[in-house]
Write a structure and sequence with these properties.
The complex is a heterodimer of chains A (513) and B (242). With 513 residues, chain A is mainly alpha-helical. Chain A is built from 22 helices and seven strands. With 242 residues, chain B is mainly α. The interface between A and B is large, with 72 and 65 residues. The structure holds protoporphyrin IX containing FE (2 copies).
């Protein structure tokens, strides 16, 4: 569609809440799925003839199956609390990118056909007829939502725009108006096992390469096993970890941690993907199909535990939905939560004193941490609420000497999305990705100037890819993004490692907890 | 005229109660297939009760969000709450002690309610983002409530009405006995507007009242790993596919 000709917003000290300016993003829509992308997921290939009736009956079906949808459509009082909370609104000024503005695109139709007030007095309550243009508008604006849930933190009723945009996307899919990026990827997982379409042999090659690299580097034979039956732990990680930068450095880190912990582990070529784009399109069925691959891999390999690598929405599906979609996991070791996050695993090892670090290995950097939205607002790590916010920071501080947080209103449960989540990480949506990154870029720039931060650590494949792409638009460097387990990898001292410590006189720092 | 009002109030009460009960049943029966609590969330049921308590009593999330809306909204609702408590005296005999005790504060409640509503109205009018999302009905709700408040305050401060007669009228309705209402203009206005409020309540955004208790992002316990959560339709789908 439109080539990327747009102006990158300027960075200021604060993100000013803009005056609304209608229609600034109306031109942007992602590529529409080819028929086979849709039919692979059991959706009609192209827009069905009776789209009007089908749209309404799907909406009716969904509101009966999802309490969230029914309650959220009814409850909004238009108080305006959410209007300045969405990064896409802040970056584009388009009022349909305000959470309530986005919800209303669907709510107006709901009111028109499913409420008394809307049936009899549409103008009075702002109800609207469903037309062909409505569908295009949904397609455009529901693909400008990264489903990050920031609005839901601030809504007095917890109305979550993500739920609405998932429902809208499912309706669109059900009438044959799917998005290419998401649907093509979900089909790829079904056929090959991961989003990137990397077949088993390619994975094996990559992992062998990593083993050689690590051995060259450290002199220690750290294994990166694939499809090993009888291993204790199945590691499920986003496929970007197999080759993208800085993702792969994170994968190297997981392997080193497992090695030092002395556990046996394996990846699976069948379930070689932690990401689950079924969530983005709101499809329980597709999300379940992808999740069941993990169950099958765990059963086939006979593992005792499942651990997930660094990925935001994947951790949401894993933590909050996996037990529902693909459980019960009564065949795994009940001593451990199912599933666990690699961060929980590593932090546990650190607390037990099993890992030794040379924190100075990260001294050339000063870190800040980007809370991924799905991790911060839709999951937990550890036993206590908020562990998902503390544990990654604890791990970073255990392996780095220099750390500073960004402004408190932009982290933790209030974190700003990277701008590329929710099925938007595609070049055809570059404009919204860049503009939506404005609040995060502003907070980063500030902490760079005020605290001398040099690098941004993240625990999500999408965040990492997105930042790599958009940092240059804002005058920063793409390699300022690092994986948290990359930091772990830098600092960890493997047993028997040939250190270049010999010519240093200081002892490696022990971690103090 | 009194019989007219008697009928109106009976009808309005029936619509209000049945309308709300119907909605509550609908919300309660609709499954929430996935765990979607906005985290950090409580990990126990009592934690959830506390979270909802804070939302309902203090508007905790709104407080995080925008202080102005919070101030006006909270003043309005607190005032409304006191006013409604104070009004209970028209509907019970003998009057409950707590209702007796708050009578003097009820008046301030009435004023607070109107001030809060006026603030919310101004915000709706002057903040361009809120203006953009407002339908005519959003303004009308505020106008309706302001008029109810003003007509009520008028009876208190300008043109008194015979509150004993009002009380007898409403208590009489319980036993299908139609008494007399004082024929005062502010009272007639007050009651007519209240009837409108009652009739529209279950069909409008005032459904935020039951809605807040059924919002999955606020009322779910954060324990998906510990306890398997499965909706009936999802279970059926599973059984069919396996
Ligand atoms: C459990 C009880 C209730 C809770 C927790 C509650 C909560 C809220 C909250 C958080 C807001 C948004 C902020 C604001 O604009 O004030 C709101 C708005 C509103 N509430 Fe309530 N409410 C309750 C009961 C009621 C009742 C009984 C009424 C009416 C008779 C009512 C009428 C309204 C109206 C009209 C608005 C919109 C205000 C505006 O236009 O800005 N609420 N409520
Ligand atoms: C059937 C229902 C109602 C009846 C019979 C009724 C009757 C009255 C009466 C007789 C007064 C005058 C009190 C006095 O002079 O001391 C009054 C005042 C008032 N009413 Fe109502 N009212 C009703 C419902 C409501 C509702 C639903 C609201 C709010 C939404 C409301 C808000 C007020 C206010 C703010 C005042 C002035 C302050 C006060 O006296 O508490 N009324 N009402």
């Amino acid at each position: 569609m439109a080539k990327a000709n747009f102006v990158t917003p300027e960075l200021h000290e604060f993100v000013e809440v803009p005056e609304v300016s209608e229609g600034t993003m109306a031109h942007l829509s992602p590529f529409v799925a080819y028929p086979e992308h849709n039919t692979d997921l059991n959706f009609p290939g192209e827009l069905v003839e009776d789209w009007h009736g089908k749209t309404l009956s799907k909406l009716d079906d969904l509101r009966k199956r999802y309490r969230s949808l029914q309650v959220y459509l009814d409850s909004c009082v238009k108080c305006g609390a959410c209007t300045d909370k969405c990064h896409y609104f802040l970056g584009t000024k388009d009022p349909k990118n305000m959470p309530v503005g986005r919800q209303d695109l669907l709510r107006k139709v709901y009111r028109r056909y499913f409420t008394l007030a809307g049936r009899f007095f549409p103008k009075l309550v702002g109800a609207k007829d469903l037309t062909r243009e409505t569908l295009d508008e949904w397609y455009s604006y529901y693909h400008q939502c990264s489903q990050c849930r920031r609005c839901s933190v601030f809504c007095p009723y917890g109305i979550d725009t993500a739920e609405i945009s998932m429902a809208a996307r499912e309706i669109l899919d059900s009438i044959g108006y799917g998005q290419k990026y998401c649907n093509e990827i979900i089909a790829k997982v079904g056929k090959i096992g991961n989003n990137l379409g990397l077949p088993g042999p390619a994975l094996a090659d990559t992992l062998e390469g990593l083993e050689e690299d690590v051995e060259d580097d450290t002199g220690v034979a750290v294994k990166y096993p694939l499809d090993v039956k009888g291993a204790d732990i199945l590691l499920v990680t986003p496929s970007a970890d197999f080759f993208a930068e800085p993702h792969v450095d994170g994968l190297i880190g997981y392997g080193k941690v497992f090695h030092e912990a002395g556990v046996s582990w394996t990846l699976s070529s069948y379930a070689s993907e932690a990401a689950n784009f079924g969530m983005f399109i709101g499809s329980y069925e597709n999300m379940r199909r992808v999740s069941l691959r993990i169950r099958k891999a765990a059963l086939d390999l006979g593992v005792k535990r499942i651990v997930f690598g660094e990925c935001g929405h994947a951790w949401r599906v894993a933590y909050a939905f996996l037990n529902t979609l693909a459980g019960p996991f009564d065949f795994l070791d009940p001593a451990y939560p199912v599933p666990q996050h690699i961060m929980e695993f590593t932090w546990d090892q650190i607390q037990k004193g099993k890992l030794k670090f040379d924190k100075t290995a990260n001294d050339h950097m000063k870190l800040t941490f980007h809370d991924s939205c799905n991790v911060a607002r839709a999951t937990r790590m550890g036993d206590k609420p908020g562990g998902q916010i503390e544990i990654p920071r604890n791990v970073i501080k255990a392996v780095c000497n220099n750390f500073a947080d960004m402004h408190h209103e932009t982290i933790g449960e209030r974190t700003f999305c990277c701008g590329g989540g929710g099925g938007l990480l595609t070049d055809d949506l570059m404009e919204i990705r860049v503009k939506g990154a404005l609040p995060r870029m502003t907070a980063l720039k500030n902490v760079m100037e005020e605290e001398g931060v040099t690098h941004l650590a993240a625990i999500c494949a999408i965040c990492k890819s997105q930042f790599t792409k958009v940092l240059p638009y804002y005058g920063m460097e793409m390699d300022q993004v690092v994986s948290v387990h990359q930091l772990v990898s830098n600092a960890i001292i493997l047993t028997g490692q040939e250190t270049d410590e010999n010519d240093r006189d200081d002892e490696p720092d022990e971690v103090e907890i | 005229m009194s019989s007219f009002f008697a009928v109106l109030f009976v009808v309005a009460a029936v619509v209000l109660v049945f309308g709300l009960v119907r909605k509550i049943i609908q919300y309660a029966k609709t499954p929430a297939p996935l765990k979607i609590a906005t985290t950090p969330a409580p990990v126990t049921q009592s934690g959830v009760v506390l979270r909802l308590f804070r939302e309902v009593v203090f508007f905790e999330s709104l407080f995080k969000s925008t202080k102005w809306t919070w101030i006006f909204g909270w003043i309005f609702h607190l005032g409304l709450f006191l006013v409604l408590l104070r009004h209970l005296r028209y509907f019970m005999d003998p009057v409950w002690l707590p209702v007796e005790l708050i009578q003097p504060f009820g008046i301030y409640g009435g004023m607070a309610m109107v001030v809060g509503l006026a603030g919310l109205f101004a915000r709706r009018l002057f903040v361009d983002r809120v203006r953009y999302i407002s339908a005519p009905s959003d303004y009308l709700w505020l106008v309706l409530l302001i008029l109810i408040g003003l007509s009520g305050l008028m009876m208190k401060f300008v043109a008194h009405t015979d509150v004993v007669m009002v009380k007898q009228f409403f208590i009489g309705l319980y036993s299908m006995h139609i008494g007399e209402l004082p024929p005062d203009f502010p009272l007639i206005m007050h009651l007519l507007l209240v009837v409108v409020l009652m009739l529209l309540f279950p069909f409008s955004k005032l459904l935020h009242v039951p809605g807040i208790f059924f919002s999955p992002s606020r009322n779910q316990v954060d324990n998906p790993r510990e306890k398997r959560h499965l909706a009936p339709w999802a279970k059926a789908m599973e059984e069919q596919q396996n």
